[in-house]
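idk why but the lab printer keeps eating my pages so im just putting this in chat instead. protein + zinc ion:
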Amino acid sequence: MAGHLCLIKSVLNSLVIYFMYVFKMPKGVGRLLSSIQRRFLWCGCTKQRSFCKIQWRLVMREKKQGGLGVGSLISKNRALLLKWIWRLSSPGTSLWKMIISSMYNPAYENGIPIFYNQPSKIWKDIMSIVQTDVHHVFTNHCKFMVWNGSLTSFWLDNWIGDYPLKTAFARLYLLSSSKSALVADMGRWSNGIWLWSLQWRRPLFHFEQEQLSLLSSLLESKPMFCHKMDKKIWTLNSDGLFSVKSCSKMMDQLLYGGAKPFQSSVWIKLTPPKVQLFLWLLVQDKVTTRDFLFQHDYLTLQESRCAFCNKSLESLSHLFIHCHFTWNIWMKLLSNRGFCSVFSKSVDDMCCNPILDSPRFS
Ligand SMILES: [Zn+2]
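predcted complex ->
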């Protein structure tokens, strides 16, 4: 199973990258590819129906969230396509970008292009991702570092506070006479000091003045530097650059479950992968003990007794802790390493036991 997992991650997950980089994957294709991966993981072939011990949505999760880190191809496809949006809205003079800009003349709102001309099928597919719920992953983690304000839209980009000013001060945005202006257009330099100068379509009412004072205090907290260019950063990476891996991981967390604590002792370094996978199944109570086979009608009650003592049902906790045969092994191991401790009563507790994580034990 460890070899199957390695092949899924290195081969089956990578075969379709070339197409996923440009084309949006239909959901049916995504389901078919997941089914091939699922069958290969559990029975080693792609044609037979397999008995899946653990739900595939759990297998796809990160290891620290209880999965095997396989990841979803749909999330990876979306992240690959979002990379085009990141590159299009970033400064640069690539030839492809100049062609797209001259063909569609896009405007940008918080890093997302808006095409006024009818885009091609490929760009239509890319923009359809932005219109789904997942686009929040992109907009929430795409931030603008403003220095001289020459590349950042004052109202539309998320550069100060938690939201774009268009959303945070919606009333003032409606009254602004320069809705699409850059930050650099909303003030001037005077003796090396930046002075904000906002223009309105009409004099503001009293309650609008209160909003303006809030906006002014927010703007005053932002230092400006006239010789430094603005920068767009991706907050999920320490270097500030967009990466498909971080984006697809975040999408997987949203789609297939949030952060769930998981026993780190399962993935101890230097442990052979097949042992790690066995421990992973063990913690989730999915090892095919005789008790497990009895519950699924593969064995009779008589046949499901412990192979060592033939007294109790061969359950996980009996086989790995309570059987006198196993218990003697544990006691010898603990006493050889100088431990004197009350041992765990279940396999799940056993994997959380700090003794097993200590260097003296390993
Ligand atoms: Zn036993």
